[in-house]
Specification:
260 residues; alpha/beta
Length: 260
């Protein structure tokens, strides 16, 4: 047993304990579509800071350990950083060389592992999947492995970007897996991304339609997308917010490079 498997197992056990204490429930749909063995890339939407927790719990039920691509800021944390490295998580410098993360991910896959990519690169403020980046497909094509679409829902009710943590008890979080997608020959990663993301969008729609809990009142509609009657930012507002964040990130990166 490797150090990575031990540390990862402890992290998942801790997450399960937290979920038990809080009364949070993870519902899995289509779990049989996640390959039990062999290399695979998961491509998922992103609605909350706890998405890796309940996706890891869901995958563990089906015997899979996941290596998530995570932003550099997480790996700079004095506790989360070492835990991430010790459990085979993969650091992504969004302003640096994408090839470094791709190479690390392909290395995990060549050892028979499973890699998960939040293709939007950040949490969508509208909770509607934002345009994806092609990293997941690029990794899948380079390693010649299946790409499994995944929809995550409900985690935004606990803690998400731009809002204080609520830690509401008894929140249901759903993980919905789609059928594995295989690249067609030397398919361009952008084309494969479009095919996979179409499935993610359908899965998210199904998850929102089947979600078993409703807002407790008018002030609790913030986590519901605007087109479904909620008060979350519209898709257009969300994209504008993401554009401003990207510009701010670009400027910070330029300032960092200028100070070296």
């Amino acid at each position: 047993m490797t150090r990575a498997s031990v540390v990862y197992g402890l992290l998942v056990a801790t997450a399960r304990l937290l979920y038990r204490v809080m009364g949070w429930r993870v519902e899995v749909v289509g779990g049989h579509l996640l390959p039990r063995t062999g290399p695979v890339v998961l491509v998922a939407n992103h609605v909350s800071h706890v998405d890796p927790l309940y996706l890891a719990i869901a995958a563990a039920r089906h015997g899979r350990r996941l290596s998530f691509l995570g932003k550099r800021e997480v790996f700079q944390h004095p506790v989360l950083g070492p835990l991430g490295r010790w459990s085979d998580q993969i650091e992504v410098d969004r302003g640096g060389l994408a090839g470094d993360a791709v190479g690390a991910a392909v290395g995990v896959l060549r050892r028979g592992g499973a890699v998960c990519v939040f293709a939007e690169g950040t949490i969508s403020p509208s909770f509607v999947p934002a345009p994806p980046r092609p990293g997941a497909a690029r990794i899948a094509v380079e390693a010649s492995v299946p790409l499994v679409p995944v929809a995550l829902w409900g985690g935004q009710r606990i803690i998400t970007k731009g809002r204080n943590a609520f830690y509401t008890r008894r929140v249901v979080q759903t993980v919905r897996f789609g059928a594995p997608i295989i690249a067609e020959g030397s398919e361009d990663p952008r084309q494969l991304t479009a095919r996979a993301w179409q499935q993610v969008m359908h899965l998210v729609e199904a998850s929102t339609a089947a979600y078993p809990q409703a807002p407790s009142g008018p002030e609790d509609r913030w986590w519901v997308p605007a087109h479904l009657g909620g008060t979350a930012p519209t898709v257009q507002e969300g994209l504008a917010l993401l554009a401003r964040e990207e510009e701010a990130r670009r400027r910070r990166r330029q300032a960092e490079l200028g100070s070296d």
